[in-house]
């Protein structure tokens, strides 16, 4: 018998793998308004309304390190991660469910802390925690989050609606979470042999907060509604600006040009990058976990968007097959590349 | 500083732990019709309709062993596990999402097989696979399944509606999946040192199928609708009859009496139990993973329920605080106990 071909997952990359696995499915139910391929699935919820549903998971050792990640923050962050996908559809989150795999290493008190963080985030966002299960895991802490949100159908923002000349907007600033992670990893290495470690975090609280306790940008979705803006496309910044912008370009069948000097980077991010002899723009493009929103609006909306505050226009959408480029201050174009699957 | 108390998860047990962790949450949104504490959460979906949402996870080494679990069957079973929670609300499944954690040990072809099984189950059930993500996992294959279903609100069956003298009904037969698992584990042990193992499964195909490829009982929810029966309470048999019946008693604030000789057990299950010198009733009560449905109906529905076929009435609901009992043929009462958290 011939040996069956073995393709390594790393050969396809994360997005290639997901495309391959989900390509066999196409929605057949009338109630499925949007299937795989966006931040969340969209399901009919009565006249004019839709529910958006999303699922995410976080794995110990890949997505978080319990040696420095406080359980309370982890609970808070799990909610942010889940809810960000709902916001990325321009919907408001209403419910979450948690499905945990817990090893015997964790105590009940540690799980209490985790749920305290979950509760805090839920209260802040006005979201109900409506269930899920807790199972034994042989292999570290696993967090599954299912999030449900609601939106008027005409306000839905898919990844696929960006049009030529639309403005590319982002909320907040980028790269801070990535620098926070690097800071924590550095202190872990430095202090691994010290008995009572006192890590040096003074001055970097902002970076730590962006990594350990990022806020979901519900305020932005509310402001967009107040201003009467429906983004032509939207996604959340979880994989890094380059990757997430390329997802919009792929879904919307368009290109993009963004300008390096317009990418908002916090002072602390730049300072930390300097200390680490690294480039803060690389952190912004490829770092990920910012949990900010990336969206496009027609050129005519520029004034309205600027009035909202806390939003930067970093570039514009170009024609199909022109690719996605970063324009540097000296005028040269750098083609953006998506980051691959995190195979640790 | 005083040492903080450390309570082991095993001290509370699975249900105690989930109760403790979720007790801090109570729904505040008008759209949350039912929060934690049932097979699925219930969310407003327009006039007269509700969506039910459920989340589950399966962990390699705890819930399945890839040395004998074919990936295609595992994909099929993951859908059954997810969809069973939706059926247990008397709702029909419409969408599922998958969130996978994959280790580099798995090839792309193995994941193709898994998704082929998912697709097969989705087609059989008329369910859309609408997304989810695939991530790297350091520690074996992790499967997260989110399921969404729809139901007219007046047809919803919670765990909490069982009334005094209601009949306790179950579909199919019990304990077969547990015996299938034991058979696979035995062959694995016996053949672990053999070069080209040829496991002896002849005559036991039924047990293997019940464990490796259980069917979700969508047919039952459809038949109940055709007969115009809305169960007063319902849950799926995933933890074993004892545990699942006690969940209904707890939620419905009632007791129960079930009769040993009425518990349906397949011939192959009894034969395998004899071979293993074990009791098939123990497998039925505590084995779990049957993915059949357990429900209650008013006494007046007895004839209608019997007409449906494939359903056994195994006992009746008793008053609050009377406990849940198994009545043996010699007339003695055995108090049912829930099985704990599977801490392997």
Question: How would you describe this structure to a colleague?
Answer:
2 copies of one chain form a homodimer. Chain A is an alpha+beta fold. Helices cover 34% and strands 24% of the residues of chain A. The first copy, chain A, has 10 helices and 14 strands. In chain A, the strands form 2 sheets. In chain A, strands 1, 2, 3, 4, 5, 6 and 7 form a 7-stranded mixed β-sheet that branches. In chain A, a hairpin with a 5-residue loop joins strand 13 (324-327) and strand 14 (333-335). In chain A, helix 2 runs parallel beside helix 3 (108-125), helix 4 (176-190) packs across helix 5 and helix 4 packs parallel to helix 8. The model of chain A is unreliable at 340-344 (pLDDT under 50). At the A-B interface, helix 1, strand 2, strand 3, strand 4 and helix 3 of A face helix 1, strand 2, strand 3, strand 4 and helix 3 of B.
Write the layout of secondary structure elements.
The structure is a homodimer of 344-residue chains.
Chain A: H1 9-22, E1 32-34, E2 41-44, E3 49-59, H2 71-87, E4 92-102, H3 108-125, E5 128-129, E6 134-136, E7 142-152, E8 167-171, H4 176-190, H5 205-212, H6 218-227, E9 233-237, H7 241-252, E10 255-259, H8 267-275, H9 280-286, E11 292-297, H10 302-308, E12 311-318, E13 324-327, E14 333-335
Parallel strand pairs in A: 4-5, 4-6, 10-13
Antiparallel strand pairs in A: 1-2, 2-3, 3-7, 4-7, 8-11, 8-12, 9-11, 10-12, 13-14
Helix pairs in contact in A: 2-3, 4-5, 4-8
């Amino acid at each position: 018998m011939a040996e069956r071909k073995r393709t390594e997952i790393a050969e396809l990359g994360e997005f290639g793998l997901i495309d391959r696995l989900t390509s066999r499915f196409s929605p057949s139910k009338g109630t499925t308004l949007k299937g795989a391929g966006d931040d969340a699935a969209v399901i009919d919820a009565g006249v004019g309304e839709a529910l958006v549903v999303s699922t995410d998971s976080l794995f110990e050792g890949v997505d978080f390190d319990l040696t420095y990640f406080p359980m309370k923050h982890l609970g808070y962050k799990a909610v942010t991660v889940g809810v960000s996908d709902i916001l990325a559809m321009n919907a408001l989150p209403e419910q979450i469910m948690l499905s945990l795999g817990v090893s015997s290493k964790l105590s009940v008190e540690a799980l209490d802390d985790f749920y305290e963080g979950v509760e805090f985030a839920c209260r802040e966002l006005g979201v109900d925690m409506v269930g899920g299960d807790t199972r034994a895991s042989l292999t570290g802490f696993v967090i599954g989050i299912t999030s449900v949100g609601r939106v008027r159908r005409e306000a839905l923002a898919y990844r696929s609606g960006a049009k030529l000349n639309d403005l590319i907007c982002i909320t907040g600033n980028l790269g801070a979470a990535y620098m926070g992670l690097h800071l924590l990893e550095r202190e872990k290495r430095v202090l691994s042999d010290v008995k009572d470690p006192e890590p040096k975090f003074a001055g970097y609280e902002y970076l730590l907060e962006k990594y350990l306790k990022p806020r979901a940008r519900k305020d932005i979705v509310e402001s967009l509604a107040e201003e009467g803006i429906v983004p032509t496309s939207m996604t959340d910044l979880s994989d890094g600006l380059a990757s997430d912008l390329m997802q919009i370009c792929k879904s919307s069948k368009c290109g993009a040009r963004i300008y390096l000097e317009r990418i908002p980077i916090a002072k602390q991010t730049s300072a930390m990058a300097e200390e680490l002899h690294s480039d803060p723009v690389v952190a912004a493009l490829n770092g990920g976990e910012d949990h900010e929103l990336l969206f496009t609006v027609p050129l005519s909306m520029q004034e309205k968007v600027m009035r909202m505050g806390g939003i930067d226009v970093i570039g514009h959408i170009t024609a199909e097959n022109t690719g996605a480029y970063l324009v540097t201050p000296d005028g040269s174009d750098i083609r953006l590349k998506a980051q691959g699957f995190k195979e640790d």
